[in-house]
Amino acid sequence: MTAHDWNGRLVPFPADRTAAYRASGEWSELPTTARLHESALRHAERTALVTAEAIYTYRELDERTDRIAAGLIRLGLRRLDPVIFQVTNRATTVLAWYGVLKAGLIPVATLAQHRMHEIGHISKKVGAVAHLVEAGLSFDLVGFAREVSKNHPSLRYVLSIEEREGQAGVYRIEDLGADIDLTEARALVEATEAEADPEDIAVFQLSGGTTGVPKLIPRIHAEYWNNGLFYANSFGWDEQTRVAHMIPVIHNAGISCALHAAHAVGAALVLATPDPESAFELMARSEVTDVLIGHGHYQAARSAGFDPVLRTLRRTVLSGAKVPAELFHKLDDGHTRWAGQLFGMSEGMFIVTPQDAPAAARATTVGRPIAPSDEIRILDPSSEQELPIGAVGELCCRGPYTIPGYFDAPEHNANAFTSDGFFRTGDLAALHEFDGCCYVAIEGRIKDLINRGGEKVNAEEIELLLLRHPDIAAAAVVAMPDERLGEKACAFLVSKSGAELTMAEVQEHLEGLGVAKFKWPERLVWVPELPRTNVFKIDKKSLRADIVKRLEAESLEGAQS
């Protein structure tokens, strides 16, 4: 069967690279769920998943998700129907993820914090048929899903986790397929898998968004499970490994570095929440051996609360910002505990520290790519000229699991990829040589993104939304440093009337537009006018310097008082 090309909106891999990846074994001919089933048969009675509320063996995980898939098929969902996910780190989230995949459906990995501004656009873009939400959060996502469906004719199903029984028009994942015989459920899953093509879209992930709302990233079956397998193999994971994960599991990092990576090799995934206190307690109790820590948790990992985890911890991967030396040395004692780094993106490329990397490379670079066919170039940001080792330029990449194009975005793709198919990441990087091998060091970003604890906030998007307020004449949003999250958004604003809006008034404006709270500015600076460069562009460099000076002055004043 020929892969569905979504009426030309899906950019295919070039034929020569497709043939090479298949010949090398870096692509699989099996759908993602068949790979899970293989692993479940090999490791049936081993622990697959540990959360605060439940533990599943591989057999239990495989059987329960077969039944969920069968339940979804019985509901009337059809192969390749997109399903929006708005859920947090729970055992039922994992069950829903695999159940949706086994039904031949396509998870669309949004965030629980997203609102109408983001979900409305994404739903229409992919033609979402179902919306999976988590009940019991501070925001009523079940009610929100019903509201979204009013203006989206394709959205016919509201699915839920943690919802009370008996809610009209809501199908609980906990109930789906519970009454279906296991043999029948497995037959339905296998029949669905038989229709799959390796180049079918498996999952839609989201970009951080370089302009406007996030771009859709289509990941295909041929490469997606293997992306996790390459990652697991980079660190020597096996069935004895117990991997802890704290950041949102539905992120690409959560799927590729935790869920799929662990289950590709028979490891146990210890799925915690972002709350450090409860997460560290679960990790210590579960005797984890490996953990990925994003820079939003660097401060917490430096505290005494993380110390009980060190008892069994063997490997720590740090991601998202330059690693403080104090933290690195706490997690890497040179004997029983090892620390390295990760740089990755939903578009594909993962760069990690090899286990045998010299200490200097581990501490100062993010490492090397994980797949044999991964390719990296450091290019002049304004051209396709390749720069020499040591020079800082734009990190560009292509490979078996790096997308050849965003979904339904031809104009953006024209600028986001080089003429020979390398993805222009927008990140500044340099290659450094250690013991005859090149390692990648990340030096900053070209893209105007704010990295708030791992969540990417597009400055231009928020500026345009702020300008929709009748009392705001001009707006520039920049990153300001934050010890806990790495960066937060600071908005420099010019008033139309001379009166300055309060933070509460700005928040009310953004809430009325349905903007996710993590994107809201967390500081307002009112100025008579925005500074300009000699070509009359807003001088964001000076604004970033301005907010740093303000924060430093406030810190000094606080210390003296």
What does this structure look like?
This is Triostin synthetase I. The strands form 6 sheets. A 9-stranded mixed beta sheet has the order 2-1-11-10-12-13-14-15-16, sandwiched between helices. Strands 4-3-5-6-7 form a 5-stranded parallel beta sheet, sandwiched between helices. Helix content is 33%, strand content 24%. Among the domains are: 179 residues, 3-Layer(aba) Sandwich (Rossmann fold); 112 residues, 2-Layer Sandwich (GMP Synthetase, Chain A, domain 3), CATH 3.30.300. By secondary structure, the chain is α/β, with parallel strands linked by helices.
Question: Summary?
Answer:
Residues 461-537 form the AMP-binding enzyme C-terminal domain. The protein has 561 residues and is of the alpha/beta class. It is built from 17 helices and 25 strands.
CATH topology of the domain at 32-199 and 238-248: Rossmann fold
Task: Bin the helical content.
Answer: 25-40%
Q: Give me the number of helical elements.
A: 17
Low-confidence stretches are none
- Strand count: 25
Rg calculated over all Cα atoms = 23 Å
> How much of the polypeptide forms β-strand, as a percent range?
15-25%
Quote the average pLDDT: 94
Distance separating the two termini: 72 Å
Give the structural class: alpha/beta
Strand order of the largest sheet: 2-1-11-10-12-13-14-15-16
CATH architecture verdict of the domain at 32-199 and 238-248: 3-Layer(aba) Sandwich
The CATH class of the domain at 32-199 and 238-248 turns out to be Alpha Beta
Anisotropy-based shape: globular
**Largest β sheet strand count, sense and barrel closure:** 9 strands, mixed
